[in-house]
Amino acid sequence: MILQKHFAATPDTYLYDDDAIRYKLVQTNPNTINYNWLFVPGGPGADSSYFLDLINSLDMPGNYWLIDFPANGNNFSESVPADYDFEKWQKHLMTVIQKFEKPIYVGHAFGGMFPLLFPMLEKWLQGFILISGAPTLWLTAAEQHANANNILPATAARNNFRNNPSQETFKTALLENAHYYFPAHSLEKGKKLLEQLPFNYHATRWWINKIYDLPFRATWVPQDIPTLIINGTHDFIIPYKLFEDSLRFQRNNITIKKIENAGHFPWLEEMPLITAAFQEIFEQIALINA
Which are the contacts of 90, defined by CB distance < 8 A and separation ≥ 6? Predict the structure, then answer.
């Protein structure tokens, strides 16, 4: 199924399907092949709007979509109950991708790691881009990476959120630990991004519990589709070396890029390097479709 056949899609209009998944077409660059770039945010729980600066800097052909699952970011619909079951997101991921012709999936953090649990995506995607993610449970490695760089947590804020979980205590902990996400030279800009970002803390708590229960390990390693993995050296939430050290991901169809002096949102510090990497992977995708 193709989303455009079911919705009158125009730029900057929110569209919803029967599952309360929210779609927003933010840019269209015409081409003879109808590629669809699907941007899925991290957290989970972060609103996809933080991709806009990145999307506005890209000029490859295709339609650029922001995707928000129910109860994600500010996608609070009356059809989403307070005790929403986030396990439904597994079904939603499949639902979203199968709606589009020629989908190129762009996931940040959770948005990129979640698909690694679903090997069937190999037959559905034209391309896969994962920014600031890991192939395995990363929490111990992240702590080691932070300690080696003298990055210390705002422990009181973290503990307050654990003991008194709420939207307010979550946002406080997020902002006070912003130095884990951004290097010093972009810290103030990064704090402003986090402060303005709609974020559903319930989704984050679900994912934390899930990755411990599994524990998280990629069950899908893209075998043939062009794949780009980007990590910043100054990301102390998810350390860059885990993909570099994973032999499973050393494949001809997978490009792993380490971005020096960039954090968890690497386009914030190094936009030209990120857009060049996108262009390179698109050229690989286009060659296959030529």
Answer: 117, 118
